[in-house]
Amino acid sequence: MPTEWTVRAITRAMLPVLLVLTLVELGSGLVLGSFEAQLFRYPSLLVLVPVTIGTAGNLGSVLAARLSTSFHLGTLSFSPRDDELAGNAVATLALAVTVFPVIGAGAWVATLLAIGAPLGAIGRWLLVGDLLAGLLAVLASVGGIALLVGFAFAQEAAAIRRFDHALADAAEAALASNGAGSGSTAGADREERPVLVVPARHAAGVAAILRERDVDATAQRVEIGDSPASVS
Amino acid sequence: MTVRDVAIEAYKEALPALAASLVGGLVAGVVLGGMRAELRAVPGLLVLVPALLATRGNVYGSLGARIATALHQGLIEPRVTGGDERLRAAATAALANGVLTSTFAAVVAFFLLTFLGSRVAPLSILVGVAIVAGLLSGIVLTVVVVSVVFAGYRRGRNPDTIVGPVVTTTGDVFGVLFLLIAVRTVLAVAGVF
Asked: Which family does it belong to (chain B) (predicted)?
């Protein structure tokens, strides 16, 4: 549902999400605060903070944006063997492997040039440590996004099932009224059966529900341009 | 398309934007590394840093996305006339959301740290820093996001692909820069009284 372009409507749509996200971010802030002493002692670690958080977030949002676009276009299926899904996951990991060592090296150089602080042994571990931290963050976000996409598919499937039931109810009602009618026209050589035309993605589900209810139903594909006579 | 094709395409598409925001993030990091004195003077500020930086990205990223979509739909013209009601409402709402969320973060951080028994600066200092930083970076980010998206759109670029990198890069840099300015201002004002 599109938000109206008023200050009140936009704020009402955005603020609750922002406040919840803030609570999550404060959790990561508390983790950061717990090793405050080390951060102050080795400024190059402090230099890493915004860029590591930012890059992990960017990688996650690039993946999420690409997946949600493919999802809307209908080119994505939620299977580990899906090319689109696997390709994007591989690309995200490859980007992480490329970018995080560069960040480590960049922070090292930046600290040396801008702050002139002694690096010590910590500098040598920055590259390795940041690569590991980055990979963990990316793995976690890939997993989180996979869960979200799975949730979206489950929601979609539930909506389709609900609509299937509504269609099955309609078909059953039509059959019942038709049955009452056919009683009065007993002796007709041809039994009339109600036909319910549904979108393809509902057909199998509706037929299954009707069979469960002991209604003699079959799903049949009708192509555009078929003449009514060709549908037996 | 095979897995390989998809992966190569996604990699090539994302790398330039990532590289740009990497540079911005490093600049922000250098500023953060240089404000150790301020971080020590205001205990609890470090806990706020991720929340404040993320708020900039969330609020102004959504402002950028909203403007990009409106441009695609023809709801707004790519011109800053100051008279466009929709643009004004979106900018005002973003600013209000940014300041409110920053203030909320400061208040929650204060009570959280007090509850945990950690050393924490007075509530007025933390809230003051959050409001000043939120307001200053909000004004600058609104101007940057609107003008970059409009300029890109007029040159025929897809605003959707510009918004992300612009917001993450400028959001990090200005977020930390105005945090530094806000801390110094608030400490100076607090020193006077």
From this structure: Belongs to the SLC41A transporter family.
